[in-house]
Design brief:
The complex is a heterodimer. Helix content of chain A is 42%, strand content 18%. By secondary structure, chain A is of the alpha/beta class. Chain A has one domain: Ribokinase (UDP-N-acetylmuramoyl-L-alanine:D-glutamate ligase, 3-Layer(aba) Sandwich). Chain A is globular and about 45 Å long. Chain B has 6 helices and 8 strands; from the N terminus they run H-E-H-E-E-H-E-E-E-E-E-H-H-H. In chain B, the strands form 2 sheets. A 4-stranded antiparallel β-sheet of chain B has the order 2-3-1-4, covered by helices on one side. In chain B, strands 5-6-7-8 form a 4-stranded antiparallel β-sheet. In chain B, a hairpin with a 3-residue loop joins strand 5 and strand 6. Chain B starts with a helix and ends with a helix. Classes of the chains: A alpha/beta, B alpha+beta. At the A-B interface, helix 1, helix 3, helix 4 and helix 5 of A face helix 1, strand 6, strand 7, strand 8 and helix 4 of B.
Chain lengths: 294, 182
C-alpha cells in the first residue's frame, strides 16, 4: 500500500488521513475535497489514476499549509509518533515545509517500524532530506533539472542558493548526477524529470526516456507531480523502483502527448490520459519482455 | 552501523541534535536594530536566536540573528513592515552564498517562460496573462499558483506580497524578470 504525505494550499484544510478517491477534478479524502491544480493533490490524482490499471488507491496524510509551516509541523509531529499502518509498503513525501529537525524525527520513527517501507521524496521534503545529510536513507528522489543542480551543490541549503557555476551545468545532467552521489546528496535511485528523463543510481545512468517530446510540458504546473504520483503508485503496487521509474517517465510523456498540450494547459487534462497511457506502456513492456523470453 | 543509527546515537528524538543547515543569518548595521528585530520576530512567534557573526561576515555590527532560512521571504516582509530591514541575509553554513541571479528564458511563440532556480513562470505574450506556475517544493508554491494563474501580470499579486518561503522568493525573481521581458 502507498502512503502519500503532503499539503493542500488552504489554511482551513484540517489534518486528515484516509483512502483517496477522485471525483471530477477534486481529490476526496475523509470527507474533505481538494482541487487538482498542482502540488500534492495532483500527485494523489495521478496515483489514483494508476490504481485504475493496477494496485490500490493511495492513503493520504494531508494538511493545509500555504507556506507558513504550521500545517506541515502538525503533520510532522503526528508522523514522528509512528502513525503509518503496518501494511504500508511505500511512502511518498511531497510538499512539506523543509525542516531538518522534523525531517529527522519522522525518519527515526520510520526506522522503528517493523518493516522498512520504500521511501520516496520529492519537493520540500526532498530538500529537507538533502539538508539533513540523510539522502542515502531514501530509495528514490524525483528532482527536476533545477532541483538536481541543488542536490549536486553540496553547499546549497535550498535551490534558491544553488551556485551559478553548477546551474550552468544544466545541459550536463549526468555530471550533476555524479556530483550529487559524490557528496552523498542523492537517494539510492534518482528519477530526474527533464528532457530527457534520467533514471540513475550510484553506478551511473540506468535508463534514458526521451519520447514522445512535448516541449510545453515543462511550463505546465503539476507535470512533475504526476510523474512522482505514478512512480510512487507503481512502487506501491510492488514494482521494483528503477523499473517503476522508467514506466512512470514513459507513461507521463505519453499522457502529455495524448492531451495535446500548450504551455497554458492545466495538469488535470494530462491526468485524465494516465490510464490509457499506462496501459499502452505496460503492454509495450510486456511485449518486449515476451520477445526477450521467447 | 547505519548512518541513521549513528545519528540516533548522537541524539534521540527526545533530544534532537542542533541543526544549522536550514538556518540563516540576518545581519544589521547597529545593535539597536538587532534588538528591535529580535523583539518583532519573537513577538510574531518565530524561533530565532541572537548570536555572534561567523568570520565570513564582514559587514554589520557584532550581533546577528539566526532564523529559519526557508521562511526568509515572510521574515523579510515582517521586518520591512516594522522598519527593521537587515543589511544582509545569508545561510548559516555557507555565509558567502548568494541568491540565484541566472534566468533561463524559453520562448514558445505565443508563450514565454522564465525560470529562476527551481521556479518557472509562464505568460501569454499577447494578453500578458499568467498561464502557469511550475517547479518548486515549498507549500506556498501551489498557493501562489492558485492566486496568480489566470490573472494578468499587472493584476496578479507579486509573489513577494503573498509568498512565504525561498521558493516564493525565487518566483518573485522570475516574476521581476518576466516584467522586464514583457
Amino acid at each position: 500500500m502507498l502512503a502519500v504525505v503532503g499539503t493542500v494550499p488552504d489554511t482551513k484544510f484540517p489534518l486528515v488521513i484516509g483512502r483517496v478517491s477522485l471525483r471530477g477534478e477534486t481529490v476526496s479524502i475523509d470527507g474533505m475535497g481538494a482541487p487538482v491544480n498542482r502540488g500534492t493533490p495532483a500527485l494523489l490524482a495521478a496515483a489514483v489514476k494508476v490504481s485504475e490499471v493496477l494496485g490500490q488507491p493511495p492513503v493520504g496524510y494531508l494538511v493545509g499549509d500555504i507556506g507558513l509551516g504550521e500545517g506541515s509541523r502538525r503533520l510532522y509531529a503526528l508522523l514522528s509518533e509512528n502513525s503509518f499502518n503496518g501494511d504500508t509498503g511505500a511512502i511518498a513525501f511531497h510538499y512539506l515545509q523543509p525542516d531538518v529537525d522534523w525531517h529527522n524525527r519522522v525518519l527515526f520513527a520510520i526506522q522503528e517500524m517493523g518493516h522498512r517501507p520504500v521511501l520516496i521524496a520529492d519537493a520540500g521534503f526532498m530538500y529537507a532530506a538533502k539538508m539533513s545529510g540523510m539522502a542515502p536513507e531514501y530509495d528514490l528522489f524525483t528532482p527536476d533539472v533545477g532541483e538536481l543542480a541543488f542536490l549536486a551543490d553540496e553547499e546549497a541549503p535550498h535551490p534558491f542558493y544553488t551556485r551559478g557555476f553548477i546551474l550552468h551545468e544544466e545541459m550536463k545532467a549526468p555530471e550533476l548526477i555524479r556530483r550529487a552521489y559524490q557528496h552523498e546528496n542523492a537517494a539510492a535511485c534518482l528519477l530526474v524529470k527533464g528532457q530527457p528523463d534520467y533514471i540513475a543510481d550510484r553506478e551511473g545512468i540506468h535508463a534514458t526516456v526521451d519520447m514522445p517530446v512535448e516541449e510545453a510540458m515543462e511550463a505546465i504546473g503539476g507535470t512533475g507531480d504526476t510523474v512522482t504520483g505514478m512512480v510512487a503508485a507503481l512502487i506501491g503496487a510492488g514494482i521494483e523502483v528503477k523499473e517503476a521509474a522508467v514506466l512512470a517517465a514513459r507513461a507521463n510523456r505519453l499522457a502529455g502527448h495524448l492531451a495535446r498540450p500548450t504551455p497554458a494547459t492545466q495538469v488535470m487534462d494530462i491526468i485524465e490520459q494516465i490510464p490509457v497511457a499506462l496501459e499502452q506502456v505496460l503492454k509495450e513492456q510486456s511485449s518486449v519482455s515476451g520477445h526477450r523470453h521467447a | 552501523m547505519s548512518l541513521l543509527s549513528f545519528f540516533k546515537g548522537k541524539g534521540s528524538k527526545d533530544s534532537p541534535k542542533v541543526e544549522t543547515q536550514d538556518r540563516g543569518i540576518l545581519v544589521f548595521e547597529h545593535t539597536s536594530e538587532v534588538i528591535r528585530a529580535e523583539t518583532v520576530l519573537k513577538g510574531a512567534g518565530w524561533k530565532i536566536r541572537v548570536m555572534g557573526p561567523p568570520p565570513e561576515i564582514r559587514t554589520g555590527c557584532d550581533l546577528v540573528i539566526e532564523f529559519p532560512l526557508i521562511e526568509e521571504l515572510n521574515i523579510l516582509r515582517t521586518l520591512e513592515a516594522a522598519g527593521a530591514k537587515p543589511l544582509q541575509v545569508v545561510p548559516v553554513n555557507s555565509p558567502l552564498l548568494q541568491p540565484v541571479d541566472i534566468f533561463q528564458i524559453k520562448d514558445y511563440g505565443r508563450y514565454l517562460m522564465v525560470r529562476a532556480a527551481n521556479m518557472k513562470l509562464t505568460v501569454d505574450k499577447e494578453t500578458l496573462t499568467v498561464v502557469n506556475v511550475s517547479g518548486g517544493g515549498c507549500p506556498d508554491v501551489p498557493y501562489l499558483a492558485q492566486e496568480m494563474v489566470g490573472k494578468s501580470l499587472s493584476e496578479a499579486p507579486a509573489p513577494e506580497t503573498i509568498g512565504h518561503t525561498l521558493c516564493g522568493y525565487a518566483l518573485q525573481l522570475a516574476y521581476e524578470e518576466m516584467r522586464r521581458q514583457c
